[in-house]
Amino acid sequence: MATYRRIEDSLDHRLMRDCDLEVLEQSEDALKARWNVWEGALNSIGTCQGMVPFGVADVIAAILCDREGIVVTKDATCFYHHALYEGEVEAVAFFDKNGKVNANVEVLFYQGGVLCFQSVFTMHATQKTYEQ
């Protein structure tokens, strides 16, 4: 599981456990990860949409932005290009802009080599630390 400084029983950590999120590679400006759409994440027509992919993308953006202080989502836009189904999802995240206070992060989800989901987040450094 990825290293992620949050309250251990937070919604983020439960989502990371449920989807089996695994960071495969991480550098200063990008990361690659893998997660799984599980049966409980499917809607009535057998696809995964809405808050599950958005929530996983938000967690991935926060992991990429993890700094000395707390970073929160300021705003976001997402696009559903193709449906996500039960199974493995490849994730790529990278900075479009990495400023001192705000960072723009793009997160892409691929399933079977096809781009299914895309989101752009503005992440804000709150200037608060985890010790405060």
Provide a compact summary of the structure.
This protein is of the alpha+beta class and 132 residues long. 17% of the residues lie in helices and 48% in strands.
Helix content: 10-25%
Residue windows where pLDDT falls under 50 for at least 5 positions: none
Report how far the terminal alpha carbons are from each other.
Answer: 25 Å
Q: Largest sheet, order of strands side by side? A: 1-2-4-5-6-3
Radius of gyration: 14 Å
Large-scale geometry: globular
The average pLDDT value, as a whole number, equals 86
Provide the structure class.
alpha+beta
Helix-strand sequence: HEEHEEEE
Helix tally equals 2
Q: How much of the sequence is in beta strands?
A: over 45%
Largest sheet properties: 6 strands, antiparallel
Number of strands: 6
Descriptive report:
The structure is a single chain. With 132 residues, the chain is an alpha+beta fold. The chain has helices at residues 11-18, 51-65, and strands spanning 22-26, 30-37, 69-80, 87-98, 102-111, 114-129. Strands 1-2-4-5-6-3 form a six-stranded antiparallel beta sheet, covered by helices on one side. The mean pLDDT is 86.
